[in-house]
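Retry 2 of 3 after timeout on previous attempt. Resubmitting structure tokens to design endpoint.
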């Protein structure tokens, strides 16, 4: 007997709001894979009647649909079950000949009779009744079409006529095709009756639930299904999809004290923050007790990182009642499936949590080895210490927020585009986090001055590069310390502290300079709005070859997505 995977069963996406308010019979959720001879996907009229006929033929049948039975039907309290929904018969005659209309009318009549027989046999009170059906002409131009339809329907054997006198309608009508002897019924009552008969006779009707009941977001199954569809459409081309996975900090520990009702309120409020931080084309999911995921279409990992920053800012505005969040971001780089992208984002989240970071973008350098060595343990402790020092530096400068972490992720993206190996990328991340650590030794009066620095004050500010080199070098990170020392050098030799030029400036220092400048230009300050990404790229490219390394600027553009966004400003609320 073949196995039917629940993850492979995809229900129709059509839903009707009035069905959600009906008192339909409840059916169990498909929680695991099942075995059956026949799986019917879709509990509409065709699906349920097909299942009924198969069951009567001795088949083992499972019917699967999303949420309620009948989610694919249309109508309110009644639905047309007739041979005329629009101007059908004239079109059939024109395209296929007069006999096509005769065949179509006979098939509709047989359908009405079949449904009536099933309803009568099973005792289903579905309000089935015969009545005239109308298709209206709203303008004078439509009247000749109506007259042709009357002629064609009559030729097909229907009782059709032109109706000039019509009941009062909420829109102007000049005439109509009236076809007598058609039918309508209440589809939910009919479908519920058929589904109940199937279950009573031993068939299974399962509900494939794609919605989280608490938050109204998609669930884990929906995430996998949606990712599968999106990745199939993109055909393996990189750069148009990002996935972010987030964990609510400490919520699992605090939830028992909150209780179910208050805990659910927190989850719903977090879901609202997610919706407010996303664009219309993005989708959010609750995939665990305190885990959420977001799929961002048309974005690279950088777009996912920016989303994570927006979300954290929004959560912070409700810090009195909502937890903060840690996030991992990933993008597909080739033909890998949705499970791989999700795993990459989850790994980035795990590493962010271990290192005390707010947001981390996946790179191959994050992949765990088969066994954590003593050196790996030392590196992990170093990451945690580095993050703590970076936050201390950001805290000292009230004009920045998570500046060092943002620069670190930007540098990692540039490094990936430049093809740096995992070890160099990991070291560069450390250097990025600590590139401004020397500012700890700068007086607050200089560091936090809201106006332009004097020449003397700027000379004091410039000493942070040497001080940072001294602090990091003391931790026996000589190469990283050298990158920090030179992260304000320029290709034209006009930088500081040593006035290096061209190839004398380490590549890693050039990467930090580009990422640092980009973050500074695009972030808000109390005294100004940040520039758009497009405006920042214009400035970077204006000074490429003199202040900035051209290859680093190009790599950053590719990492951000390659799109010019001069007129686009990221939402910061």
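Retry 2 succeeded. Sequence:
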């Amino acid at each position: 007997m073949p196995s039917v995977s629940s993850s492979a069963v995809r229900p129709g996406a059509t839903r009707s709001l009035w069905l959600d308010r009906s008192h339909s019979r409840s059916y169990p959720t498909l929680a695991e894979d099942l075995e059956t001879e026949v799986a019917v996907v879709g509990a509409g009229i065709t699906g349920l009647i097909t299942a009924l006929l198969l069951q009567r033929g001795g088949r083992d049948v499972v019917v699967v649909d999303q949420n309620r039975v009948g989610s694919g039907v249309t109508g309110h309290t009644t639905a047309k079950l007739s041979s005329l929904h629009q101007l059908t018969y004239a079109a059939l005659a024109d395209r296929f000949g007069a006999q096509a209309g005769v065949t179509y009318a006979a098939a509709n009549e047989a359908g009405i009779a079949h449904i009536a027989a099933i309803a009568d046999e099973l005792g289903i009170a579905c309000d089935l009744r015969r009545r005239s059906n109308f298709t209206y002409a709203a303008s004078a131009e439509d009247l000749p079409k109506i007259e042709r339809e009357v002629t064609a329907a009559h030729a097909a054997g229907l009782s059709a006529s032109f109706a000039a006198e019509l009941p009062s309608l909420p829109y102007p009508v000049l005439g109509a095709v009236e076809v007598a002897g058609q039918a309508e019924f209440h589809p939910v009552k009919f479908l519920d009756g058929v589904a109940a008969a199937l279950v009573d006779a031993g068939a299974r009707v399962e509900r494939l639930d794609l919605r989280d009941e608490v938050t109204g977001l998609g669930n884990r199954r929906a995430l996998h299904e949606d990712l599968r569809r999106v990745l199939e459409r993109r055909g393996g081309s990189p750069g148009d999809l990002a996935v972010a996975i987030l964990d609510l900090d400490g919520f699992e520990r605090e939830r028992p004290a909150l209780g179910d009702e208050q805990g659910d309120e927190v989850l719903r409020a977090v879901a609202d923050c997610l919706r407010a931080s996303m664009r219309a084309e993005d989708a959010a999911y609750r995939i665990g007790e305190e885990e959420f995921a977001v799929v961002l279409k048309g974005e690279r990992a950088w777009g996912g990182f920016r989303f994570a920053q927006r979300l954290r800012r929004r959560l912070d505005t409700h810090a009195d009642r909502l937890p903060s969040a840690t996030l991992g971001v990933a993008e597909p780089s080739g033909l890998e499936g949705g499970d791989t992208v999700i795993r990459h984002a989850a790994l980035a989240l795990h590493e962010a949590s271990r290192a005390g970071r707010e947001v981390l973008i996946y790179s191959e350098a994050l992949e765990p080895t088969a066994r954590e060595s003593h050196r790996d343990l030392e590196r992990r402790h170093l990451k945690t210490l580095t993050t703590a020092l970076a936050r201390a530096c950001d805290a000292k400068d009230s004009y920045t927020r998570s500046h060092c972490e943002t620069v670190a992720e930007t540098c990692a993206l540039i490094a990936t585009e430049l093809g740096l190996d995992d070890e160099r990328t990991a070291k560069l991340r450390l250097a990025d986090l600590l590139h401004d650590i020397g500012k700890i030794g700068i007086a607050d009066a200089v560091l936090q001055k809201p106006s332009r620095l004097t020449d003397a004050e700027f000379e004091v500010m410039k000493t942070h590069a040497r001080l940072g080199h001294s602090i990091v070098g003391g931790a026996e990170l000589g190469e990283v310390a050298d990158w920090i020392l030179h992260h304000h050098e320029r290709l034209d030799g006009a930088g500081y502290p040593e006035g290096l030029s061209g190839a004398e400036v380490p590549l890693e220092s050039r990467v930090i300079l580009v990422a640092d400048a980009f973050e500074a230009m695009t972030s808000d300050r109390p005294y100004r709005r940040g520039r758009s990404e497009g405006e920042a790229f214009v400035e970077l490219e204006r000074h490429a070859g003199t202040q900035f390394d051209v290859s680093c600027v190009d790599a950053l553009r590719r990492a951000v997505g390659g799109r010019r966004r001069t007129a686009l400003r990221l939402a910061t609320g």
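Attempt log closed. The chain has four domains: 3-76+190-207, 81-98+122-185, 210-362, 373-573.
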